[in-house]
Amino acid sequence: MMRNALLAVLAALTMTACAHAPSLVQFANNAELIAQGPLPTAPLFVRLFRLQATGECDGPRCPEVSVQIAVSELGEYPRQALFATPAADDWQFVEWGEYPRQAPQKEGDVMPVVVALKATRHGVSQVRRFAITLDGVRPIE
Amino acid sequence: MPRHINTLNGLITLLNDDPLASSPDLPVSSVLAQMIETVVKTTNLSININSTTGGVHSPRSFHYHGQAVDINRLDGKRIDDVSNAANVQVFQQAVAAHADVAECFGPFICIRKRGALIEQRPDLRIRHLNHLHISSQT
Prior knowledge:
The structure holds 2 protein chains of 2 kinds.
Chain A: H1 2-17, H2 24-30, E1 32-37, E2 44-52, E3 65-73, E4 80-84, E5 90-97, E6 113-121, E7 124-133, E8 136-140
Antiparallel strand pairs in A: 1-2, 2-3, 3-4, 5-6, 6-7, 7-8
Chain B: E1 12-13, H1 30-43, E2 47-51, E3 68-74, E4 77-78, H2 85-96, E5 101-105, E6 112-113, E7 116-117, H3 122-127, E8 132-136
Parallel strand pairs in B: 1-2
Antiparallel strand pairs in B: 2-3, 3-4, 3-8, 5-8, 6-7
């Protein structure tokens, strides 16, 4: 139990810490909105931005890409957060998903938003699913 | 299914405080309508709703989804009328106790968000001295 909790924390830290936060200038000039959802009235609303580093491709290698993950509650004064995937050769949005657990029991809990993203590194692509909350982004099986 | 709020024989009015602006008597979430009607009946305090889905609010506001109202008058008096403070407090407490409430911003300590009590922040209170902002979870 303790080990699993520790692994989850480490995974979340890896997700948010691997890519350095872009400056607002980089973000405003280069980010491309690739998906937003899952629904405007959902308790958590997520916007996904594909952000490629500036520069030219060198043969098959191009500047790395991350996905900036903006998450917000509904409301007049929503809590909001911004996370990022680690950099890869490419990231693409695949689909929104459903959280594989029952509805939260604790008062005030909000279900995570699940998204599937395709990461490509060294020519190999892999679809990974992530659970997004205001506390962070963590990979799920 | 969105619907109009029942005026309960005049206990609830829907008048914009800007007479040149459009009427707030617009369809809202049935859960919100039911919650407002229940609280008015329970407290027997009349209200005026001066905003539903119109107006300008926070980009992620419940107003845009028909899930929020602003109330500027209670029992015939302005929300910021000091002689009305006890009524305002009673009304906010009744809203905060309702199972479907998402937000209950106003001059008193009654903020409740998605079932969880959250602290009354000074910046929220300052912006809600003259009206109540009430929203429902669905």
